[in-house]
């Protein structure tokens, strides 16, 4: 959907003549009271559920959670998947043309924040004629958007499902983002973010960024279980082979897995989008305007909350979710919290885990929707 | 010290006409029974203690631990710091000339393992006329060498001090090493490891490698305490400033700290050395030849052991030290183990911590040395 009116951004800049890509699932009811907005994390899009006709492997990124009869039941709810500004999957982003210059934005695409995204999402809802959301849901960075919805538009959100998220990033998380960004921006093919004009793609940097990301999305335990110290040769039926004794060859299976993931990512993800999205993560910090006091910051929220965290998630640890829970309870808000004992690390929020799915399912079942 | 005889390596290759740099502290006693060998980790050298004349900031990397009257008292012990093959701090490495080709080794320097290093160290001791070591001590990768000493030369080691180490790397640790290596080897200035001839240095890759390393050497907690979410501007007296809203500028102090560490490292560390040393870490796995059974692997050891780990060390966690302790106890070896409650992560083994220093001090006090 195209928007003509300029969107003012937190940075002071603004975006005009932009588009937002979105998908919907299920039917909006007569009272327009059954809409659920899904916010995406780093590497995702508006395609949250279902399969595109004729494309067998095109499941939405939260298809295990969302659909007819699923935890978020599209027979009951009208689900909206939205793609954020700055993305490379449809909505206006660095690969598009700046209407002010008729040049590709590239590095000139303005820095967007979680709050900016939520503002843009709210405009989409205005355009769809939806005043109040039955729920907003998101994991990781999507959870930050969900939390921010309850603060920016407290009267438009009845329920907020904040999954595997945090009230802000720790220094360690910022550090990992920064290394990934430096890998991209110091790649000679980056050309200060204007690589499109040079016909290059900073693939080296994107590969490194993705490899770092992958390590932090998994738990140490699941990596040991999945790869351990297995050699590449062992998977080729040569378990007894000695080492290659090479610093260049992939010797261990974890190495070839990471290289594969890096290569794949570099083929489709935009480098400027990566920079923008990691920066949005870094900046999010609703308590900042309240001297770091999260309880004061969350006083505006009126929604009911479900928080979910995963025990082995070291990037967005349960401790961080509990900080949100505590701040909401300090404000006497209605909060449910589930800490799921799952081995998969941060990635768990995207995976099938019976207890996790059932917690979300029960929560959505409890949401009343009047036709 | 120069060695003419070729050193056979685990890979099947060999090194001839090589040198080993070392420093000694204290005096070797008449019975030659008070020698302690110090093995270094990734980013260190033979200069373990003391200050070079006229160079105020040249403290050895373990100077807080080693010296007259210190935990490892050089009034009692004769301490030997050695630099490993493949290093860039003095011993023969990739920056030196290959006697077979009269070209700089570069990427042709053979892959060396922990076992190869220990063999080379043993030859140095032979040359110094030292048959038996009172102790071997090392942290991290140095701890792996220490452990390997007790297996390769069980009759030449009376005591082994294995600090912040592990019986092998986990998949996650290999993964971090691999990302760092890929950052270096995909830097266009790497030239397949023969960058010396091209007059280039793969500094971009070295910077990224060092930034990743730094993150994993620190604990999440100490990073939060030291840097938190503090802005660069706050350190410049402008605490109230808004964000830069930039993906290229260092916005948070943790970012500028990591950039500084990366820049510094890229100025002095050799890229091929980095590859070799991280590979030695990856390969070390004494249990591999015993079907993964560490207890069987350690049956050869005869030394007495002190193991030390640090609670917040997530790169070489206490759990990994306990695996070594258990395997030694399975063999009824004499083992002391201290798990130090320290906030600093893996770096703790290099820092002043009263309990840690006192454990090491007590252990060395208990070692009998007959003049």
Automatic annotation (TrEMBL), chains A, B:
Localization in the cell: Cytoplasm
Upper lineage: Bacteria, Pseudomonadati, Pseudomonadota, Betaproteobacteria, Burkholderiales
Pathway: Amino-acid biosynthesis; L-methionine biosynthesis via de novo pathway; O-succinyl-L-homoserine from L-homoserine: step 1/1
Gene: metXS
Species this protein is from: Rhodoferax lithotrophicus
Function (record text): Transfers a succinyl group from succinyl-CoA to L-homoserine, forming succinyl-L-homoserine.
InterPro entries: AB_hydrolase_1, AB_hydrolase_fold, HAT_MetX-like
Domain AB hydrolase-1, first and last residues per copy: 34-338
Keywords per UniProt: Acyltransferase, Amino-acid biosynthesis, Cytoplasm, Methionine biosynthesis, Transferase
Top enzyme class: transferase
EC numbers: 2.3.1.46
One matching Pfam family: Abhydrolase_1
Active site: 140 (nucleophile), 313, 346
Similarity remark: Belongs to the AB hydrolase superfamily. MetX family.
The protein's assembly and partners: Homodimer.
Protein name: Homoserine O-succinyltransferase
UniProt: substrate binding residues: 210, 347
Catalytic reaction list: L-homoserine + succinyl-CoA = O-succinyl-L-homoserine + CoA
Site for Important for acyl-CoA specificity, residues: 315
